[in-house]
Amino acid sequence: MKSPKTPNAIDVAVGHNVRIRRLVRGLSQAQLGKRIGVTFQQVQKYERGTNRIGGGRLVRIAQILGVPVRALFDGVEAAPESHAPSMLRLLADARALRLARAVAVIGDAATRLSIVVLVERLAAAIAHKRLRGK
């Protein structure tokens, strides 16, 4: 039997949400850790879902990130067939977030679409090469 303190799927989802919100705010793990009184390694463990985040600390994290506590539970009740978990993983990648921010700044819709098509073609070419074993 698992210990009640053992992290579960909800802890992992909350950790991913903390990471996404931290990246959106432009904070490093060290900066967030300093503000909540833990090391950056502890923030890493929270974000991976390796360690559970206590209630009081969760409230403090939400305050620092400028979101309601419930926002850190987004996607927790999502059905397995939902796209929410894959979208959360995508947003948790700092490079994907940088790309999304850069594209969002471009005012011209046709230019934004061209960039999306370019990235999709690059991804398809890479996937095709992997399938062929190159």
* Distance between the first and last residues' Cα: 46 Å
* Tally of distinct domains: 2
CATH homologous superfamily descriptor of the largest domain: lambda repressor-like DNA-binding domains
CATH domain fold name of the largest domain: 434 Repressor (Amino-terminal Domain)
Low-confidence stretches are 79-85
- What structural class do helix, strand and pairing data support? mainly alpha
Count of separate DSSP helical elements: 7
Which CATH class of the largest domain? Mainly Alpha
What is the arithmetic mean of pLDDT?
85
Measured by DSSP, the beta-strand proportion falls in: under 5%
Order of helices and strands: HHHHHHH
Broad shape = globular
Largest sheet: none
Q: Radius of gyration from the CA trace? A: 18 Å
